[in-house]
Amino acid sequence: MSKNQLFLGQIILHLLLALTIVQSALADIVFQKSSGSRTLLSKLLKILEYEPPTIGKPERTADGGSRASENPTLLSELLEVLEYEPPSRGKPGDTTDAGSRGSCDLLAIVPVHRYGLTAEEYPTFWFYLKSQPSFSRSAKLELQDEQQNIVYTTTFELTQNQGIIHFRLPQTARPLEIGKEYRWILSYGDMNDEMYTSGVIKRIALEPEIESQLKQANSRERLHLLAKKHLWYDTLTELNQLRRANPQDTEVDVAWTTLLNLLLSQLKCPYLPTG
What we know:
Immunoglobulin-like; three-stranded antiparallel β-sheet; globular; 37% helix
């Protein structure tokens, strides 16, 4: 057997191995229950980061380096944020007090444990609305501190009938305090047919070095820094801004849609349309 034939055979073997991993993960997507979502995400991460064994010398890049796995894809970085497991916490962050992510009609865009980090004084909250009932166009947002005192409440008009909606805490509200956890509740509908969804948000302090890097970074670099610090709310907001500023960027659009569809799939909700 010639060297070329051996080289081709090795490539085919690695492709078959990668295909086997993909098929296994796809089977999980179709059949597994929502309680096994961490297993699914772990397999997806393995697919995204899979590199076959080196065949000969590694490919060199234009700057003399090699293509290595230390440069993760955008989607793999976002899945790392989604899979981040928060430390053990007391109220209001424990699972019994975090509330409900909601249903397919009104769903909080948060990880399955309903807990997320932010570095912002006035973060943005994200939700999925399946369809807007004809009897109401307004929603109510309530923010509670660790003692379950209401620190902010407002009613706002929805600007769209369905899809992904967001609400940024206004600067007229009390800013989130560093190191504090808050429970937020979004309700929608009338007294006879009210829907609600909720979760927990915690503001953390960033190291001065990271703050300096964020000030000097472009949107893509900011997204990388926020994801690396597991800042769920800030990462999702930055990703949406990057997507809107670069509508032709396929990687960003795929990352946004895939991330949201993974969350929707945990409750067996309809997927977002692609494109």
